[in-house]
User: Which sequence fits this backbone?
């Protein structure tokens, strides 16, 4: 576990850069992580991020299909929002652990 300064706040991250304590997350941290991944966040991004955080807090396993059935965005839209690894990148930006379904 390592400390990293993101958006002026020192947070704990694992070796892949995922926050290890979801309570340290805020919108400014999300925005900075997204910038590192070359993603500019919109309100739609935050709807997805909040959905992921809620499901993670409830202990539900996350999948691309579950996001696609959320009513927030379809699967194609999810890929458009988070190109190159929608669940992997959205989870990282949301401050939650990388889902087991991600490589």
Assistant:
């Amino acid at each position: 576990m390592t400390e990293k300064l993101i958006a002026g706040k020192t947070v704990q991250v694992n070796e892949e850069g995922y926050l290890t304590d979801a309570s340290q997350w805020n919108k400014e941290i999300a925005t900075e992580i997204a910038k590192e991944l070359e993603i500019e966040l919109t309100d739609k991004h935050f709807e997805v991020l909040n959905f992921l955080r809620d499901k993670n807090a409830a202990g539900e396993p996350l999948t691309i299909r579950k996001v696609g059935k959320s009513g927030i965005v379809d699967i194609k839209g999810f890929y458009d929002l988070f190109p190159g690894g929608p669940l992997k990148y959205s989870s990282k930006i949301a401050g939650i652990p990388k889902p087991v379904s991600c490589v």
The beta strands are 2-6, 9-13. Helices lie at 27-36, 43-57, 64-68, 75-81, 86-94. The longest strand covers residues 2-6. The radius of gyration is 13 Å.
